[in-house]
Amino acid sequence: xxxxxxxxxxxxxxxxxxxxxxxxxxxxxxxxxxxxxxxxxxxxxxxxxxxxxxxxxxxxxxxxxxxxxxxxxxxxxxxxxxxxxxxxxxxxxxxxxxxxxxxxxxxxxxxxxxxxxxxxxxxxxxxxxxxxxxxxxxxxxxxxxxxxxxxxxxxxxxxxxxxxxxxxxxxxxxxxxxxxxxxxxxxxxxxxxxxxxxxxxxxxxxxxxxxxxxxxxxxxxxxxxxxxxxxxxxxxxxxxxxxxxxxxxxxxxxxxxxxxxxxxxxxxxxxxxxxxxxxxxxxxxxxxxxxxxxxxxxxxxxxxxxxxxxxxxxxxxxxxxxxxxxxxxxxxxxxxxxxxxxxxxxxxxxxxxxxxxxxxxxxxxxxxxxxxxxxxxxxxxxxxxxxxxxxxxxxxxxxxxxxxxxxxxxxxxxxxxxxxxxxxxxxxxxxxxxxxxxxxxxxxxxxxxxxxxxxxxxxxxxxxxxxxxxxxxxxxxxxxxxxxxxxxxxxxxxxxxxxxxxxxxxxxxxxxxxxxxxxxxxxxxxxxxxxxxxxxxxxxxxxxxxxxxxxxxxxxxxxxxxxxxxxxxxxxxxxxxxxxxxxxxxxxxxxxxx
Length: 594
Hints:
Elements: H1 2-30, H2 33-46, H3 51-63, H4 67-80, H5 87-97, H6 101-117, H7 121-131, H8 135-148, H9 155-164, H10 168-181, H11 186-193, H12 204-219, H13 223-235, H14 239-253, H15 258-269, H16 273-286, H17 290-307, H18 311-328, H19 335-347, H20 352-363, H21 369-385, H22 389-402, H23 407-423, H24 426-436, H25 442-458, H26 466-479, H27 483-496, H28 503-516, H29 520-533, H30 540-554, H31 558-571, H32 578-589
Helix pairs in contact: 1-2, 2-3, 3-4, 4-5, 5-6, 6-8, 7-8, 8-9, 9-10, 10-11, 10-12, 12-13, 13-14, 14-15, 15-16, 15-17, 16-17, 17-18, 17-19, 19-20, 19-21, 20-21, 21-22, 21-23, 22-23, 23-24, 23-25, 24-25, 26-27, 27-28, 28-29, 29-30, 30-31, 31-32
């Protein structure tokens, strides 16, 4: 019986201590130092081994400017725990708070002397200095410890402190020291350095990081330097430069082509077709692996489809597909190729019925729910192309139900909304888009927001939704690659609803379609008209950027292009086109862009 009472007493005591500790921490974090002090005094008295109780009690005394109490606590604690060498830092800091700088420095130097005899004390002292915001002393501790014992790796601590001081060059250098000692820290450096890297190649931090890595690469070829340069160039969307680094890595190791395939994939989806083509051509030249060969062929065909214009080019793509199907068959191993072929048949050759047959056959070969869902989505897209909206909605909805909470389900929801908009069912489309505006996928969220704005702004005051229905009809025609018919429909919208809310979207959409069919002067006219219509409209910076691209790439007028890019740089600092506008402006000006 007595033993049970002792156990019960111990449990109650522990519970009370834990409660007091939580309460003391709450008061301390809130800045109620008087209340926190009284609780920490009790906690420290019961358990003076706990460093957090000691440190917080000391901080309470100091915050309340009760330096006599703080000094007494330090003396008492140091007598009992003589091995805690970091207490010299606390004693020094207590003097500093009282304005006794000389005494503070004497104690800081005492602390630093311990490192000379035992470099491992560098970490202890460094942390103590850090806790008291003595950054320069903390740096001295960490750096001296590594000088005395090169096997110590405190570069991450050093880098963090340089970051606190906004000394970006020394911070980057310290991160790179970390990699130089051990390549396994590559991912760590990428993560931390990435907080200071932007997608602007001329950002000072980007320029500095590139120079520091190149300097090390020239001194000592190391896989990590190539990887870091490739990563940097990828962040900047300089995929061709990233590919140069990846090729250098492959030539040095020749282990696998995964990194080059991954880069090619990124370049392809960011519409850098040249780099994607070069990357996957390199893969084909350097692999015998069937999966890699098929993957490379898939991307190369998709690049060819994107760039095919003449009937001869389109026929060449058709022949390439047939050659691959002859060699590899139409089985689960060529499912990606089959999907690409269905897309090609529909949107390039205008043969959707053949595509539907291929997709339905391919559905039987799928080996996972995700793969099945992808083919369902593509089938829905082809059905929309043929105006079979209800059948398309069934396919999209099935994906949404079968793969709940996945990115694919969110894509399906967006396609449901888009198809409903095409049909003229605007209320249902809005209900779906409202959910998608918070999508975890930024691309889906942006598309959803754009369509939500289009619909919501153009159904107000128009109970029959006549203007939006006509615009949606043009959108369907554009989706079906019936570009001239779409342009003509948009002309009808502009004539019938001149001055209406739909006017700016119509002019902008029509300009995009003019560009697609290479009527660049008409596209230019539309963009200029849109800017004149409303200089503060949400499509104005888009129009300046599109004009700049037209002048640069199609109308051979670099002076006008520079003028348009400058408009974005100086008048639209929050534009999503700002970084690219700067890059292209510098390129046209003749700057050397590394």
